[in-house]
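Researcher: Structure for this, please.
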Amino acid sequence: MRRAEDRTLIKRLISGITPDGGTQIAPALTEAYRRVLPSNATYKHIVLLTDGISEEGDSLELSREAMLKRVTISTVGLGQDVNRAYLEKIAQYAGGKSYFLNEPSGLQQILLRDVMEHTGSTAVEKPLAPLVMKHAEILDGVGIDTAPPLKGYVRFIAKPGAETILGIDRKDPLLSRWQYGLGRSAVFASDAKARWAADWITWKGYDKFWTNLCRDLLPHAQSGEATVEFDSANGDLVVEYRLGRDVEEPAVIPGIFVFGPGSFQRPIAVKKVAAGTFRGRLQIGARQGLFRVRPLVESRAFPEAGLYRPEAELADYGASLLRQVAQFTGGRFQPDSKAVFDAGRRSIASTLQLWPGLLGLAIALNLAELVMRKWKGVMEGAKPGAPGSTA
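Model: Predicted structure, token format:
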């Protein structure tokens, strides 16, 4: 295993291979899979190049296992004496492609195109229909089953803990959303214009889809007051609603759910405790992250509310990272508010151009000297007895 940029060593290793014996695909494929599987890479891809017929061994079972481990395998058969059906099965089982050539002249272009498609380029341009990975309120009333195929998308890997709602092509994520702190974000891997989504623009569910997505990200208008607290003694999430003056008390309390990190989703029983006041409790234990409390239907009396319990990664890694940034730049970590803009006896070197002032001073002195000389001559000429004077 080495980086592809080390071309000189790779060429020397390949040139050292000598033809001898028969074609043994299964051991070579097993060794390649064993080496690539533990590597820390976003995309793991194997290209099998052969010019002969070999015993299958356990290569087909290995191809199925590679697909489950997100390792793709493409096969290239060069020459006439190749087992096409066998190579096609390996590529099919492992999510790759199979190629066959009679002459090696086009081998380089095929290899480059295959590697770019499976690893080097994250943009995939071909008609693909979206797949529903998880039913969510974003898809309500959209009719996603009738959505036409998209003409392309950008490959990415969803962060662990993210909620993948739509998938595409071998279940790659197409629409994922994520909660971080008190904020929410979403990733749509295609576009919304007349390139990849050209057929979506005329689809009747297009406007509804983007409306639901934006509504899910934006804060909801609140007519009532909702507060969420954490009861550390019991490990309960406590939500309380107080109706505003212009909000009528609902006859039926809608279903209210709590959404939390790690696909946490549970209903919370909300009951009336006083006039215009409702309260509910739900056991969440020691879970950390953002918890959203929202009704299944839009309600002015029960607006969406949230509670954020900082994760360990923010308390530990975030603080450590900020401390390192402060030390590296010569700043301070968590200073008092009064000391934020205190220079701490530090100074910053700066330059000042003196020539404009000095030039102005020289001109002023020159004029002053000229006036003094002229004035002296005038005064001397006006004295009695001076040449040209009259008495």
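Researcher: Any notable elements?
Model: The first strand starts at residue 44 and ends at 50. The longest helix spans residues 355-381.
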